[in-house]
Amino acid sequence: MGNIFSKTALLAMGRSCLDALFPPGCPRCGEEVDRVGALCPDCWPSLDFISDPLCHICGIPFEYSQGEAALCGACIAAPPPYAGLRSALHYNEASRAMVLSFKHGDRSDRAPTFAAWMKRAGRDLLEQSEMVAPVPLHPSRLIKRRYNQSALLASGIAKGTGLDLAQDLLVRTRATASQGNYSAKGRVRNVRGAFAVNTRWQPHIEGKTVLLVDDVLTTGATVEACTRSLLSQGVTAVNVLTLCRVVQPASLNI
Ligand SMILES: [Zn+2]
Ligand SMILES: [Zn+2]
């Protein structure tokens, strides 16, 4: 008997049956939408996607184009340890609520949508990277939350790219207080030496470029500490991809 339906058609049928049972929800408010990953008309304008022109290294948006590979003032004055950083969204009231429900509200089902947005924002970094790894949670926090939201994003990003997913590439050497309790300088101190490369991965990272994944970038202290730890163990370069980032208008080089 010949195949009446192609595999793709069967998959599509399966998906539409699933959609009928569990209609896809807007990743921000949960309102029913017509396809997975689509935002509802109310939420679409409240989310602020980051787009070009950007600083070539730290990815901070410029108000107008400064030419290809232009750098912001901060990166010219003191280049960060990572090679490139990109984020999908501005961290604002709407994305904050979305991230909080992802982190604490059992909305791990939204990871594939967020990962797709991040892949779009970080397509250049993906091309340059060989391994994908998340910023780790300390085990005590992992028990409380049940999952590491950055690990879910990392796995969604690695999917279909051929990049090696190294979920436990980095480990926390100590529990740190929440970064929210500190000033910019305090945050740097709080995470200094808090990350190490997992000994299991040490023989496999020499000369590699790693794409580090996190949910929110605030001052960058956490990803910088992770980057330094990777570079100290033989990694050639680190790129960083986050779902959201805080953008301080004062730090824009305009
Ligand atoms: Zn919505
Ligand atoms: Zn910059």
From TrEMBL:
Domain of life: Bacteria
Domain Phosphoribosyltransferase: 201-245
One term of GO molecular function: glycosyltransferase activity
Matching InterPro entries: ComF/GntX_DNA_util-trans (IPR051910), DZR_2 (IPR044005), PRTase-like (IPR029057), PRTase_dom (IPR000836)
Entries under Pfam families matching the protein: DZR_2, Pribosyltran
Domain Double zinc ribbon as annotated: residue spans: 18-75
Entry-linked CDD domains: PRTases_typeI
Keywords associated with the record: Glycosyltransferase, Transferase
Similarity comment: family membership: Belongs to the ComF/GntX family.
PANTHER family in UniProt: DNA UTILIZATION PROTEIN YHGH (PTHR47505)
Name this polypeptide is given: Phosphoribosyltransferase
Species, as recorded: Sneathiella chinensis
